[in-house]
Structures are given as structure tokens and as C-alpha cells.
Amino acid sequence: MNAKQAAGYRAAEWVKDGMIVGLGTGSTAFYAIEKIGERVSQGLKIKAIATSNASEELAVKYNIPLITAGDVNRLDLAIDGADEVDPGMALIKGGGGALLREKLVAINSDRFIVIADSGKMVSHLGKFKLPIELVPYCYEWTLGQLKNRYDVAFEMRMRDGELYVTDNGNYIVDGAFGQILSPGQLGDELKAMTGVVEHGLFVDIAHTVVVGYEDGRTEVIEKK
Ligand SMILES: O=C[C@H](O)[C@H](O)[C@H](O)COP(=O)(O)O
């Protein structure tokens, strides 16, 4: 068992019969989905909503019944990975480009459980480049605004030589902020910029962090 698997499997224990569950995206969330799928095959009765096309495919593979947002008002639980977690449980997410759907699911869940290998735990956010989702229309102007406002390197995310396109049809720019001292303030500023759809700072959203270690141990940290 590796650290991501340990965290994902442990978090899957929170899922109970009758719950509506948000399924995260990425290599750590994969393990949570795998374990939930195993429990579904043993009789667990839940419904789920996926945060990306990739996670939806996984849910279908594991016969986890899926719903859409129109079917429910809130979720009982969401389980998702993170790229960085600070001591106050603020996160950077979006390394896999799913930040917008992930944030929508997380903020509409009664409990949001973050699963992370111990290497993701940091004293300050920002070493991991902050993903920012942009509307494709005139994105060059939005990028220009970002560059004028922040003295850090911004790089449009690419895939196979083309601009990376999210599941929502948007672009991503990654910002090398280095050290983010006030994630809440930075998040508010970014959100206020026309052309920015969403950013990967998740502040005051996580309720629980499950940290996985390479020897298979896990540690559960609850919001104070
Ligand atoms: O967009 C992707 C998500 O925010 C992921 O949860 C995050 O990037 C962590 O991914 P992983 O578990 O693969 O490190």
C-alpha cells in the first residue's frame, strides 16, 4: 500500500449507506473511488456525482450509481485530493485541471475530506504553481492583466502542443507564486478579475484532511 492508496482507502470509510457522495479527481482520488466501488459491489447503497469526465468514467467502471446536480440540493460528503495543504487546511488544487467542478462539489458538501500523501503537506502554499481557469475568449488580455498585477511567472498550460482545455471548455494558466502568505486575499483578488473563471485556492472549505504515509499509516486532521 502506498501513501495515496492509504489516504484514499481510509477516507472511503466515511461513506455510509444512503449518502450522496462527491468523487474527486486525480491519482489519490482514484484510490478512494476504487475502494468505494469495492464497497458498492459488496452492497453499499450510495449515489455519487463526479468532478471530472475521468472520474465519471471510473465511477461507471466500478458501477457506482451517478446523479447530476439537478437531482439533489446538497451532498453528504466529498472526497478529493490536493496538490498542497497548509497547516490551516487551505489548499492548492487543480493540478489535473478539475478545480472548477471540484470546488463546486466541495462547497456544496456537508463534509469535504481531503486526501493527501504526506509530501503534499506544506508550511505555506505556493511552491506548486497555482492553476487559474480562464475563459478562452480574449484570454490573452486576462493573462496580460495577471502579469501586470503580479510579479510572478505565468505559463499557459499545454497538452500535446495545444492549449490545455478543461472539461468545461476553458484554459488554465499556472502561476509560480512561490509563497502565498494570504491565500484568502489572493483568491478574492483573482476571483474578481474579469476573464478568470476560478482558481485553485480552496480556503476554509476542507473539514478533514487524511494524510497518507509510505508505510501505509494514515493521520486524520479535523478542522479546529
Ligand atoms: O485537478 C485536479 C485535482 O485538484 C487533484 O485532486 C489534485 O491535482 C491532486 O492530484 P493527485 O492526487 O493526482 O496528486
TrEMBL record:
Known function: Catalyzes the reversible conversion of ribose-5-phosphate to ribulose 5-phosphate.
Protein species of origin: Fontibacillus panacisegetis
Biological processes annotated in GO: D-ribose metabolic process; pentose-phosphate shunt, non-oxidative branch
Domain of life: Bacteria
CDD domains: RPI_A
Protein name, entry field: Ribose-5-phosphate isomerase A
EC number: 5.3.1.6
Gene Ontology molecular function terms on file: ribose-5-phosphate isomerase activity
Catalytic activity: aldehydo-D-ribose 5-phosphate = D-ribulose 5-phosphate
Gene designation: rpiA
HAMAP family documented for this protein: Rib_5P_isom_A
